[in-house]
Amino acid sequence: MDPRNTSRECPECGHTAKENRPTQDTFHCQACGRTAHADTVGAINVLNRAGLVRCNANTA
């Protein structure tokens, strides 16, 4: 699982941009306006990606 841009991608609308992270600890989506701590956003995105990988895994 590629961790790139996990703290720059909005978990609400999916918009990814370096401008979404104006400071080291701040996340502010330029598309939908969601704000949060950048580490929280990164963790949400990692969990979402892991869940998608698990859902799409072949359980045979």
Properties at a glance:
elongated; single chain; two-stranded antiparallel ribbon; alpha+beta; 60 residues; 1 helix
Main-sheet strand order equals 1-2
Please give the radius of gyration in angstroms. Answer: 13 Å
- Biggest sheet statistics: 2 strands, antiparallel
Taking pLDDT < 50 over at least 5 consecutive residues as the criterion, the unreliable ranges are none
Identify the overall geometry.
Answer: elongated
* Through-space gap between termini: 21 Å
State the helix count. Answer: 1
- The SSE order reads EEH
Beta-strand residue percentage? 5-15%
Q: What's the β-strand tally?
A: 2
Relative helix content: 25-40%
Protein described:
β1 and β2 (35-37) form a beta hairpin. The two termini are 21 Å apart. A two-stranded antiparallel sheet has the order 1-2. It contains 1 helix and 2 strands. The chain has one helix at residues 38-55, and strands at 26-28, 35-37. The longest helix has 18 residues, at 38-55. By secondary structure, it is α+β, with helices and mostly antiparallel strands. The chain is 30% helix and 10% strand.
Q: What is this structure's SSE topology?
A:
Blueprint: E1 26-28, E2 35-37, H1 38-55
Antiparallel strand pairs: 1-2
Concise summary:
The chain is α+β, with helices and mostly antiparallel strands and 60 residues long.
